[in-house]
Amino acid sequence: MKKLKIGIIGCGGIAGVHAERLKTLPEVELTAFADIVEANAKTFAQKYKGTSYSDWQKMVDKEKLDIVYICLPPFAHTNEVEVAAEKGIHIFIEKPIALNMKLARTMVSAVEKHHIKSQVGYCQRFSHSVEEAKRLIQTGEAGEPGLAVGLYWCHFLGGEWWRNKNKSGGQIVEQSTHLYDALRYLCGDVDEVYGQMNIKFWTDIPDLTTEDVSSSTFRFKSGAIGTISATTWGAASQWWLRWIIAAKNYTLVCENSDALTLYSTTKADEIKTTTEQRDVYLLEAKDLINAVLNDGETRTPIQEGAKTLEFTLAARTSMETGKPVKLPLP
């Protein structure tokens, strides 16, 4: 069987997470690695038996790649998607796909024009809790959602670029975007959002512009209401991505990604919890590879990445201006 050749752009921490999964899959071959810090690319090339490059454009020009993984920080995203698409190379791109809608829409247009497969790294869509909730909502068993409440709390202070909102997008756009995406995936697109944010805890950090507390309230197009709170000053060594959805037949509760608890809205003693541990990074890789091999659709194509980016940008804009923001953005 011919193996799909994969190249990686950006050889940092998240690239290693993906490479460790990809190396286990018989359908693919890790072929080439590019990073502006050539030593990083060489380290990956030595570990995974590929070729290193300091220029990703040379990599995609020279190597006959089937898939490219774009694992760059948000501010470094330029024309990688467009160049890959023009060459017929399928893409995986980490979230957020961009820091503005102009670039995001350019990416979407390139993918659609050249009919390539795309997957955005919203790995929570492959978690047991989100996948099972999606099934229950789609089949009608859960009934229509009316209220969604989520929190993304961690104790975290990233490096220089992450602390700079102009480079990362802030916690909302770069990090709690996973929760914004999960609730949009489960409850549908958003019509309007209003929010507040501040820096209350990491006040002794020079040049910090990324918010450390935020809260948003939004209306889905369905009429359902949602709210998300986020902080980078949560419990030490804890990483909470939690949500509750009030639907007609169930209250759906997720306290961790591996478990979903259903509370009946009509029977007091009817409570059911299902659990399943999953490697969501492996599952999102398999989903993309299956789409490429079988001409299928991915769970999170780039159009979905653009919609979630728009949602988080709207929330951030509202927080910065103190005014509600309607979607879609101009």
Structure description:
The protein is an alpha/beta fold and 330 residues long. It folds into 2 domains: 136 residues, 3-Layer(aba) Sandwich (Rossmann fold); 173 residues, Dihydrodipicolinate Reductase, domain 2 (2-Layer Sandwich). Helix content is 36%, strand content 27%. The protein is built from 12 helices and 15 strands. The protein has a 9-stranded mixed beta sheet with strand order 14-13-12-11-7-10-9-8-15. Strand 13 and strand 14 form a beta hairpin. Helix 5 packs antiparallel against helix 12 and helix 10 packs across helix 12. 45% of the residues are buried.
Summary, kept brief:
This protein is an alpha/beta fold and 330 residues long. The chain has twelve helices and 15 strands. The protein has two domains: 4-123 and 282-297, Rossmann fold, CATH 3.40.50; 125-279 and 309-326, Dihydrodipicolinate Reductase, domain 2 (2-Layer Sandwich), CATH 3.30.360.10.
Topology record:
Elements: E1 4-9, H1 13-22, E2 28-34, H2 38-48, E3 51-53, H3 56-62, E4 67-70, H4 80-86, E5 90-93, H5 101-114, E6 118-120, H6 128-139, E7 145-154, H7 160-163, H8 165-168, H9 170-174, H10 177-187, E8 190-198, E9 213-220, E10 225-231, E11 239-247, E12 250-256, E13 259-264, E14 271-275, H11 280-294, H12 302-321, E15 325-326
Parallel strand pairs: 1-2, 1-4, 2-3, 4-5, 5-6, 7-10
Antiparallel strand pairs: 7-11, 8-9, 8-15, 9-10, 11-12, 12-13, 13-14
Helix pairs in contact: 4-5, 5-12, 6-10, 10-12
